[in-house]
Request: fold
Amino acid sequence: MDDLERVLEPEYIAKLTVENASYIRSYPHMLEYFRDIPQLTEKDVVVGTHMVYGWMPTIVHLNKNGAKLEEVILILQSAKDGDVALNTNELEVVKKCVNNSIVGASKLLHFINPEQYPIWDSKIFRFAYPATEPHPNRVNNVKTYTVYRERLLKLMHHPRFLELHSHINQELGYSVSGLRALELAMFVGGTK
Reply:
């Protein structure tokens, strides 16, 4: 069994309760912000990056040194349009712009396209790789994030996935994407 499949075990789903009112309450509003924007601009990247860093204990620093903001906007628009997944180089460009952090970049990408990009952080790393310590160089790795994303997309085809997705939506009181359901269950599991 893949380590991530633990999240679909009936006993895990049965004891899963989602708490943290601010985190849960802010999510649909942040998602709506990006849903209503047909064409991303510099303003949207700046505002969106600051929104997702509101969930983190770190202050955001938009690093224009690693990439031109115009290039980042084009990459993020491509992610929003969802035709093709971003490649490693594109993810590196977004990462460099957003505090040189794949954690921050994953959150921004998730709100831009929640059907294609899961959120990634050290708690999720801890759940996905329980035998490995979540050192910053392991968590802040684009290739590790890419593998995690692919694993989650596969996991959504598991026979028990619908049970977890339904449980998460019921716990939250609103519907979320399949990737969000999996990631949130792992986030909660990674904190215990």
The mean pLDDT is 89. DSSP finds eleven helices and no strands in the chain. Residues 6 and 12 are 7 Å apart (CA to CA). Residues 21-35 form the longest helix (15 residues).
